[in-house]
Design goal:
heterodimer, A: about 230 residues, mainly alpha, MetI-like fold, about 80% helix, about 0% strand, B: about 260 residues, six-stranded mixed beta sheet, four-stranded antiparallel beta sheet, 9 helices, 12 strands
Chain lengths: ~230, ~260
């Protein structure tokens, strides 16, 4: 059995596609959390109420400044062990939910900042015109300012999504073992002679996932750009 | 205040729609509105003129509280301007505003720009709002542009759309903050024509402008401001032929010699 045949057997024995699928679903759920929390934080950041702005600024700075690994370990040590919060009796599912929450919180800070840079692309006159026809603050934010801010923020939001895809590998820190970085580690331990091929397989897998996301966000940001 | 006569009707007995009483506003150390008092009656067209930086735009923007004032009082429709919140939003719905830079919602079509206020503020059903919006767009002469985005229109068309957007709220008063200053010369008249039409239909209007021809033809009263102070108010005829203050004389000399 040659090198290729041997490595083919290693791949056949390992659930590489299954591991990537775990990372993709982790990305999906944490992206939803990040988008919802990040939008709320951005809306609070531009609100006329000082207390809202303060809370949002504090939230963004905490989760932007702490390294992701530390956030994930905190989810495990503080939320799970110290506070005893348990999402499921199934240990694997419990770790998965903790990972999604940790990833969602961490990336919501970056979504909020991306949206804030998007808000800065919207001229002040847009909000003034919205207020002048009698829209309330929340109406002018949701109908006029934020829709334009999203369009102006597609490129930075895409970057955040790409970072999130790759950062899902940190889910190991809360004990999600079935995902790519866990599997890669395991495969290298058992098949040390194929270390380079294994490494290249996972690197290539991420490149294949990320390239279309990058292309799509570039195309979208061009197509949806607000013409002024 | 003198009795104003225009187009054969008198505004002397008409109720006061806007009343500014001893209004002061500062931008840092700059006294941008200095003890300004002004009453505007229903149906009256008041044109505010003066050198740039004199506080004209701030005066206009203070009336719907886009600029909060530091002291004094502004009464609109018999009610003091509310603080920021729901009440203020309701009052702003009654006061139409047209900006120098049009400020049409850049991500919405012209039709959606005009229907947004009626639908979201007045809760008008979509079909009714669109029907009225099309009538308004026809009135300002851009019915065939209804499906386009603002960036696809010329400046004059955008400003006429902005006027239609304000009219869709059935305002009791229209504020115009230098509506033609950002326009190419050949587009100024198409916007002024719409404004003349509004004035003829008895709309109460406060117009900040440098268009002296418009002031002469349409204004019931001209108000002259300089350095934050309201220095003169008179009929256009009186003001342009016989200005009282040196600063007004100086200003008119500078702009009318061309």
């Amino acid at each position: 059995m040659g090198f290729l045949g041997g490595y083919g057997q290693v791949l056949a024995d390992s659930s590489v596609l299954g591991a990537f699928w775990v990372n993709i679903t982790l990305t999906f759920w944490s992206a939803i959390i990040a988008l919802v929390l990040g939008t709320a934080a951005a809306a609070m950041r531009i609100s006329p109420f000082t207390s809202f702005r303060a809370v949002s600024t504090l939230f963004v700075n905490i989760f932007r400044d702490i390294p992701l690994t530390v956030v994930m370990v905190m989810m495990s040590l503080v939320v799970s062990m110290a506070l005893g919060v348990q999402f499921s009796n199934d240990l694997n599912l419990d770790a998965y939910v903790l990972a999604v929450i940790g990833l969602g919180l961490y990336h919501s800070a970056f979504v909020a900042e991306a949206l804030r840079s998007g808000v800065n692309t919207v001229p002040l006159g847009q909000a003034e015109a919205a207020r002048a026809i009698g829209l309330t603050f929340s109406q002018s934010a949701s109908l006029v300012v934020l829709p334009q801010a999203f369009r102006g923020a597609i490129a930075p939001l895409g970057n955040t999504l790409i970072a999130l895809i790759k950062n899902t590998t940190v889910a190991t820190a809360v004990g999600v073992a079935a995902q790519t970085s866990g599997l890669m580690k395991g495969m290298i331990e058992i098949h040390a002679n194929y270390v380079f091929a294994i490494f290249m397989t996972f690197a290539l897998g991420y490149v294949i996932i990320v390239i279309p996301v990058g292309l799509a966000t570039t195309a979208l940001s061009r197509r949806l750009a607000v013409k002024r | 205040m003198t009795v104003q006569e225009a187009d054969g009707w008198s505004v002397a007995d008409a109720p006061v729609i806007v009343s500014l009483q001893n209004v002061d506003k500062y931008f840092g150390p700059v006294h941008v509105l200095n003890d300004v008092s002004l009453d505007v009656a229903q149906g009256e067209v008041v044109v505010v003129i003066g050198p740039s930086g004199s506080g004209k735009s701030t005066l206009c923007r203070a009336i719907n509280r886009l600029e909060p004032i530091d002291s004094g009082q502004i009464i609109v429709n018999g009610q003091p301007l509310p603080e920021e919140g729901k009440q203020l939003a309701l009052l702003r719905a009654e006061v139409g505003m047209v900006f120098q830079s049009f400020n049409l919602f850049a991500h919405k079509t012209i039709l959606d720009n005009v229907t947004l206020g009626p639908r979201k503020v007045r809760k008008t059903p979509k079909a009714d709002a669109e029907k009225e919006a099309m009538a308004l767009l026809e009135r300002v002469g851009i019915k065939d542009q209804a499906g386009k985005l603002p960036a696809q229109l010329s400046g004059g068309q955008q400003q006429r759309a902005a006027i239609a957007r304000a009219l869709a709220m059935h305002p009791k008063l229209m504020l115009f903050d230098e509506p033609t200053s950002a326009l190419d010369p050949e587009m100024i008249n198409e916007v002024l024509d719409v404004m003349v039409d509004l004035a003829k239909n008895n709309m109460t209007m406060i117009v900040v402008t440098h268009e002296m021809g418009f002031a002469r033809r349409v204004a019931d009263r001209v108000v002259f401001m300089s350095d934050g102070c309201l220095l003169e108010q008179a009929t256009p005829e009186e003001f342009f032929t016989n200005p009282q203050t040196d600063r007004a004389k100086d200003f008119l000399a500078k702009i009318l010699q061309h």
